[in-house]
Inverse folding.
């Protein structure tokens, strides 16, 4: 038996213009296999969250579900929401599932993400406040999948988003995944 030590990085500090940042990430320790033969492997990413809290009172939050850790020093479009969120007294949470191509197809993925959302909301003292899920492209698909999961009452944390904002989400990916599963069951080439 090989023991694996997980180092957890946790911080609470002051960010730009006096905003408070609550951050907690676990280092990536594994890789992700994308096919049944084990030939298509990608590196895992850090799993955790970064919450940027406004200087003033907090009325709610916007949560983006990413596949990797957001670099706050870069010029990512997602960061452009921070000034408007500050004015509206909203926290902004960037959640990383640890899987850059995570579509949240499986209930186990959704349950892990639901737990991570609850952990982030609790750590940032946002539990019980309205939280809107938001995302563009794949992050939008993640937001939609988690909103549906929670809306159906399947969240063990009894959490439901106040709303969902999507932009250019590949909503038909579930259909593609089901077609791929059907092709595999027929022993057909899944790419064909």
């Amino acid at each position: 038996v090989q023991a694996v030590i997980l180092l957890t990085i946790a911080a609470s500090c002051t960010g730009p213009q006096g905003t408070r940042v609550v951050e907690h990430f676990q280092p990536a320790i594994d890789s992700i296999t994308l096919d049944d033969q084990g030939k298509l492997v990608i590196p895992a990413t850090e799993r955790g969250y970064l919450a940027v809290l406004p200087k003033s009172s907090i009325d709610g939050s916007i949560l983006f579900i990413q596949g990797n850790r957001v670099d706050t020093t870069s010029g990512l479009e997602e960061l452009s929401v921070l000034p408007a969120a500050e004015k509206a007294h909203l926290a902004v949470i960037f959640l990383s599932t640890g899987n850059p191509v995570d579509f949240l197809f499986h209930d186990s993925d959704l349950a892990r993400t639901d737990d991570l959302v609850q952990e982030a909301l609790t750590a940032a003292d946002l539990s019980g406040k309205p939280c809107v899920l938001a995302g563009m492209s794949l992050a939008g698909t993640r937001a939609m999948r988690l909103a549906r999961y929670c809306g159906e009452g399947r969240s063990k944390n009894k959490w439901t988003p106040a709303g969902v904002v999507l932009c250019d989400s590949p909503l038909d990916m579930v259909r593609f995944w089901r077609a791929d599963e059907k092709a595999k069951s027929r022993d057909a080439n899944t790419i064909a």
Remarks:
- The first helix runs from residue 82 to 87.
- The helical segments are 82-87, 107-123, 138-151, 173-185.
- The mean pLDDT is 84.
